[in-house]
Predict the 3D structure of the following.
Amino acid sequence: MPILRLLELAQAQQQAASGFFQSSAWLLVAIPLLSAAFLLLAGKRADRWGHWVGVAASGLAFLFGLGVTVSLLGDDAATRVRSLHLFSWIPAGSLHLDAGMRLDPLSLTFVLLVTFVGTLIHVYSVAYMEQDPSRRRFFAYLNFFIAAMLLLVLADSYLLLFVGWEGVGLASYLLIGFWNHETPNAVAAKKAFVMNRVGDLGLIVALMLMFATFGAVDFTTVFHAAPAASSGLLTATGLMLLLAACGKSAQFPLQAWLGDAMAGPTPVSALIHAATMVTAGVYLVVRSAPIFEGAPTAQLVVVIVGGVTLIFGAIVGLAKDDIKKALAASTTSQIGYMILAAGLGPVGYALAIFHLVTHGFFKAGLFLGAGSVMHGMDDQVDMRRFGALRKFLPFTWATFALGWLAILGIPPFSGFWSKDKIIEAAFVGDGWRPWVFGLVALIGAGITAFYMSRLFFMTYHGTERWTNDQHPHESPRLMTVPMIVLAVGSAAVGGLLSIGGAFTIWLEPVTGHHEHGEPVLSVPVITVATLALVLAGVFFAWRQYAVSTVPTTPPLASGMTRAARRDLYQDEVNEAVFMRPGQYLTRSLVYADRRVLDAGVNGLGRLVAASGEVLRRLQNGFARTYAATMVAGLLILLVVVLVFQS
Amino acid sequence: MNLSNYLVLASLLFAIGTATVLLRRNAIIVFMGVELMLNAANLLLVTFARIHGDLQGQVMAFFVMVVAAAEVVVGLAIIVSIFRTRRSASVDDVNLLKN
């Protein structure tokens, strides 16, 4: 009997604990947000220890997220979608909006990724930003970034998601332009912000469309009503959501800001690329699955955008000599894979999120590695000035190598499990689609292998090409430990989460259960082809950048390479197609405003003033004139009366 | 009695009064013009009262006379005080409010 009692007690306690974690999930957002506010308000006296508050806030959020996840795991799989009502946000008559959180496997996957990778990046930043006088402010922004991203993924309505969405945009602006005393950095921050606004416009229009059709913007109502809505409307909403995703995730045609965003400190790049920013677009598309499923056209556009971006990013990555910009191009490309997977329909959602998670690990690791190299090389970013760094940065080399193998998709590292599955899924379908999308994904993998190997060999192997007075040295523990953790993650996470399809099953309450159809090529053929392409890419990169000497200045190259070095002229195109005409438009509008509107209003004023000037003369101060006026008026009245009487 | 005689006389009186008001500068003379106009109106009131056999017109004329008397008192007082300060009774000189 007592044992039974004990069991009951334990169960009750466990339920109480899970209830506590789930009902106070708002703390996930509140903790980093409060920490950010505290750090900003605390002033100089917190300069010496403020960064540890930031680290602690992020770490606490991770532990809390872990608690919520574990408590959710304790529930039955079917009931793993929880809505948590927080407060009544906009109660205005028939329009009633609640602020609430949605706890489900999808949002919690993001919570864990964002807080875990985020915490590691926080720790790394403690050392990386040590010399910076405004390190406290940096940590405040980092915490704010985390809080905004958590709000974005935990929101239970599109409107609350939009709040987090804008918060992420603001935080990225503040962090990209963190060293804004130099003009290019400030310009890069502005560029990121403005291009993000273009995407935000899509989300705003999508919100309006939802309000107009469903009368609500919370996920539950919208997704419930979506299957009944007309496909034209769903297509429009889907395309607007895609535009938003393109802005945030740097997808074609809004990809131009990501390369420039490298102007921020390297931990920021790691955070933006791995956890808090570019993943938001993928989240939005996967979250809006019920809308996209009613709109096959929008889905097709999603896949096309993903495919174009993945090739675009890969080509740009081939030609970049700046180590961070090459990594940025690879992010664009990898997010292209995720968007492509998300556009493939139910089969792809779990794959997109899975690749997002593994990518979060290896890309954060790669960026932190690049930061470590820059740390040892006096902020040099030109890979043509690196070379043979393996001896001097052993830990960085080893962790970077694991990240490199992961992004290449070499088994058994993480990237293999996620990317290979996406390539397989791209080959599923009828007609021309599987061939086109599958081959694009396959070729993308080959190009990725080439440029990532190029980056790896140019940095760590070959001959020393440093400028004279550089003494490369390994980074301190605070930087290497996060890199090691991420490297272990890059190596193992993909495989571990794939055992028995664990990750797909975990996401099933959100994405639903779907068997993926037979690809047009058999699975082993695809895997072998991918691996062959990847190994060919590595081989060519090894021959060109490890064995033969790399020139320290970019050699003259074909038109294609020159185009890739300039990001395939994305800035020129944007400038010619959007910026200049936009400027002309505003200028002509200003002109029209001055010449037409202002002229009309001012003319009216001048007319009144001029008539006053004329009428003023009537008031000449002579009593007899006034009398004459009265008589004249009287006579006129008399005449009028007489005329109209007869 | 012939109505047009009365009408012509009243009109003449009114015209003379009006011309006096408009053309003369001396405030006293202007006042006399005003009186002429009032009396022209009075003459018509009385005339029509007689024709219609109705006393209302005559009563009205008395009212006009009373009000005119009061007006003359106030007006003359103003003229006298203006004359005292400005040494002139010309209506054209009364222009303090203009500037």
